[in-house]
Write a structure and sequence with these properties.
The protein is mainly α and about 290 residues long. The chain has one domain. It contains twelve helices and no strands.
């Protein structure tokens, strides 16, 4: 069987990720968010371990532990903030707000690497911010939690952390391979979260153990397919596919949680997505220009 193209691999990853988010939202209704987050990485590491075994147990070098250690802290913080936001926001709205992360990458690179922020990035960020403001008005009144504003802030904080982790993912996926990236992306955050989870969260309910197994399986498939996709194609080529998550989140939110977002959500999503595509187009234009000049 010929290998699947990167776009299809990422699309399948997004479907698995949407199902994973829905499982998290369901489990967090009756379990502490730290327990759910730790369970996601514990069972994700278990299933990722079998994928690693099936791949022939590729060697995990010491430098990989160091690199994934840094990513692990980012991923753990990103997950806790986003998973908590899922408990107070409609699923489609949390997903829409998380789309802001590509617009944050230039500013992250400016802070971390001293890279210059291009005017096009500033324009796109302004458009994306307008989309965020509009999308925050898209939750139906009956679905608004008392912690709604904190939930929006948590998603934006999570998106900021995710933008850093995705920059690191591209390099690690190319050098380490999908089986190692998938395993380390679950194992390292799980080790980091173990202490806080045991200290502050009650054990999961027995009735939810099958849900945690499902969560781990979806997490492993999601990370493995995403690592494969990013190892085969440039991030800017794959970025638009991430926005199909809004379709799956809307369907799942309607069917499982009876959430019907208002039109403002989709209008805000359109602005955010348009801003992200503009950045991707400008990046591609500059890359082609640099190649022609050389």
């Amino acid at each position: 069987m010929p290998p699947l193209p990167p776009a299809l691999l990422l699309l399948l990853a997004i479907v698995a990720g949407s199902a994973m988010d829905a499982t998290i939202k369901h489990l967090a209704q009756s379990n502490h968010v730290l327990a759910v987050t730790f369970g996601r990485y514990l069972f994700g590491a278990l299933f990722s371990f079998f994928i690693w075994l099936h791949a022939g147990r590729p060697r995990i070098a010491p430098d990989m532990w160091r690199a994934h250690g840094m990513r692990g802290f980012l991923i753990a913080a990103c997950a806790v903030t986003f998973f908590w936001a899922l408990t107070v926001l409609p699923l489609a709205q949390a997903v829409t707000l998380s789309f802001i992360y590509p617009l944050l990458v230039p500013f992250v690179a400016w802070v971390m690497l001293g890279e210059r922020v291009r005017p096009s990035s500033l324009v796109a960020a302004a458009i994306g911010f307008a989309g965020v403001l509009l999308a925050t008005q898209g939750a139906p009144e009956h679905a608004r939690s008392p912690h709604y504003t904190l939930g929006v802030a948590a998603v934006l904080a999570s998106a900021s952390l995710f933008s850093v982790s995705m920059v690191l993912l591209r390099s690690r996926a190319q050098t380490d391979g999908a089986p190692i990236v998938g395993l380390m992306t679950s194992l390292v955050p799980g080790l980091i979260l173990a202490g806080p989870a045991f200290a502050f969260a009650a054990p999961p309910r027995l009735d939810d153990w099958l849900g945690f197994l499902q969560l781990g399986a979806l997490a492993a498939v999601f990370m493995y397919l995403m690592a494969q996709a990013y190892a085969k194609a440039e991030a800017q080529r794959l970025a638009p596919i991430h926005y199909t998550e809004l379709i799956w989140a809307s369907i799942i939110g309607l069917v499982l949680f009876h959430e019907t977002p208002q039109p403002q959500l989709y209008l805000g999503a359109a602005l955010i997505i348009a801003a992200c595509l503009f950045v991707a187009y400008d990046e591609r234009r500059l890359t082609l220009k640099a190649r022609e000049a050389s």
